Amino acid sequence: MDDKATLRRRMKMVRDLVDDHLIRSVQLWARVAALPEYDAADTVMAFVGFKGEPETDPLFARLAADGKRLLLPRIQDGEIHACDGEGPVVVSSFGVSEPQGPALPPDIIGLLIVPGLAFTVGGDRLGYGGGFYDRFIPKVAAPNVGVCFAEQIVDVLPVEPHDVRVERVIST
């Protein structure tokens, strides 16, 4: 099995080759919205898609139409903090758009949507290597779901003791 660095490079290339990106992103968010966990959540924490990740503007529009509150992650002091997604955002040192409002307690999250470079059907996840979600997911009592394109689903991933699985993976 390849090491994580090699897999990250490969999965970035795979992700970047998805050509019907916007259409499949819309389909992905429709699948997420069909989940009972989505229906039950008043507050959804997602992410701002970048560099080939699923387009998140359609998700944000759906959340607004469904009357749900959007939270977005901000990395601060090496940790993810949940922040209101309605305020201003700036591009972080990681190149990701992050909210500028105050950090909110993770117990207000009703559903956590987690990005990744690759997932297994069982919920193993390959992220970007910072371990941010591995440290954040255990702090959130709400259900979580990993999202990706079908090409990012793999049979097996190298797993280390600190790696945290997602409860469910949705792809298109």
Low-confidence stretches: none
**Averaging pLDDT over every residue, what do you get?**
95
Helix percentage range: 25-40%
Give the C-alpha Rg: 15 Å
How would you describe this structure to a colleague?
The model has no long low-confidence stretch (mean pLDDT 95). 26% of the residues lie in helices and 24% in strands. The chain has helices at residues 4-16, 21-33, 36-40, 57-65, 132-136, and strands at residues 43-45, 69-76, 79-84, 89-91, 97-99, 103-104, 111-114, 118-119, 125-126, 144-148, 169-171.
Tag the structure with descriptive keywords.
alpha/beta, 5 helices, 26% helix, two-stranded antiparallel sheet, seven-stranded mixed beta sheet, single chain, 172 residues
Quick synopsis:
This protein is an alpha/beta fold and 172 residues long.
Tell me the layout of helices and strands.
Elements: H1 4-16, H2 21-33, H3 36-40, E1 43-45, H4 57-65, E2 69-76, E3 79-84, E4 89-91, E5 97-99, E6 103-104, E7 111-114, E8 118-119, E9 125-126, H5 132-136, E10 144-148, E11 169-171
Parallel strand pairs: 1-2, 1-7, 7-10, 10-11
Antiparallel strand pairs: 2-3, 3-6, 4-5, 8-9
